[in-house]
Amino acid sequence: MTWRATVLTLFPGMFPGPLGTSLAGRGMERGLWSLEARDIRASATDRHRTVDDTPFGGGAGMVLRPDVVDAACAAAMSEGDTRPLVFLTPRGTPLRQPLVRELASGPGAVLLCGRYEGVDQRVVEARGMIEVSVGDYVLSGGELGAMVLLDACVRLIPGVMGAAESAEEESFSDNLLEYPHYTRPAEWRGLRVPEVLLSGHHAEVARWRRAQSEAVTRERRPDLLSTEQRQGPAPRAPLHSAASPA
Ligand code: ADE
Fold first, then answer.
1. By the 8 A CB rule, do 112 and 73 touch?
2. How high is the pLDDT of residue 233?
3. What pTM, to 2 d.p., does this model score?
4. Ligand 1 geometric centre to CA of 16 (Å)
5. Mind listing the pLDDT tens digit for each residue in 43-85?
6. What is the CA radius of gyration of the chain?
7. Residue with the nearest Cα to atom 5 of ligand 1?
8. Nearest atom, ligand 1, residue 140 CA
9. Strands 130-133 and 187-188: what pairing?
10. Whose CA is nearest to atom 2 of ligand 1?
11. Architecture field, domain 169-230
12. Does residue 158 register a pLDDT over 60?
């Protein structure tokens, strides 16, 4: 079964972009996943193809209209399409590996990319969208966030990564950052690779790597060691439950 990604955007020309190269691009060529970028503007109904309007309550910027976004969602999803709808927004829940795993193990995803100030919240709720942020900074639109999310999902699709690139022992698989890596030459500019890695003692290597992982995580990301992080996020509704209309 092909993992299906549909992106709703005002800038379909941004796709596939980097997703057409490397691991993701090869996986797409081999039919392991598919990507369709759809222009939200195609769902506008007036002759000016208007997609946005000024915010009620005042303020700067423009807001994507709920009727246009809803029509774009309807056009992208056929009857019985169970793919979760993800809205990329800096207001969203931070993207973490458990959500990536959950999305990657499903049928695919429909990704809504905001531009301007945002999207009318009614359609976000009526469509039961999952609001996701890719980090605590503001991008000029959701497109790069969608690419980040898709890249993270696609590499987990069976067959996309070769045996050489194991997804097992890497950052976040155990809520720890990864240990440092070294290769030949064993001495470079007078800097030697840690001796334990040359010892051939597999158990000692494993112990050293674990200690390195724990030390770098304590140093850079103490938040990952908190009980809340370790036990996973608070329960949330299954990905395909749709909110009911008002
Ligand atoms: N759109 C703008 N900023 C974003 C962010 N940080 N994450 C997801 N979508 C965004």
1. yes
2. 64
3. 0.93
4. 18
5. 999 999 999 999 999 999 999 999 999 999 999 999 999 999 9
6. 21
7. 90
8. 2
9. unpaired
10. 139
11. Orthogonal Bundle (1.10)
12. yes
Is CATH 3.40.50.720 the classification given to domain 3-154?
no
* DSSP-derived secondary structure for the chain: --EEEEEEES-GGG-SGGGGSHHHHHHHHTTSEEEEEEEGGGG--STT---EEPPTT--SS-EE-HHHHHHHHHHH--TT--PPEEEEEEEEEEP-HHHHHHHHTSSEEEEEEP-TTEE-HHHHHHTTPEEEESSSS--SSSHHHHHHHHHHHHTTSTTTS-TTS-SSSSTTTTSSPPPP---S-SEETTEEPPGGGGS--HHHHHHHHHHHHHHHHHHH-GGGGSHHHHH-SPP---TTPPPPP-
Residue type, 67: D
Torsions phi, psi of 231, nearest 5? -90, -5
Shortest CA distance to 117 belongs to which of 59, 45, 39?
Answer: 59
Where do you find CATH 1.10.1270.20 in the chain? Answer: 169-230
- Quote the ligand 1 centre to 142 CA distance (angstroms): 5
Please tell me the distance from the alpha carbon of residue 208 to that of residue 195, in angstroms, as a whole number.
Answer: 11
What mean pLDDT is predicted for residues 140-151?
98
Whole-number Å distance between alpha carbons of 225 and 142: 29
Q: How many CA atoms lie within 13 A of 52 on its CB side?
A: 15
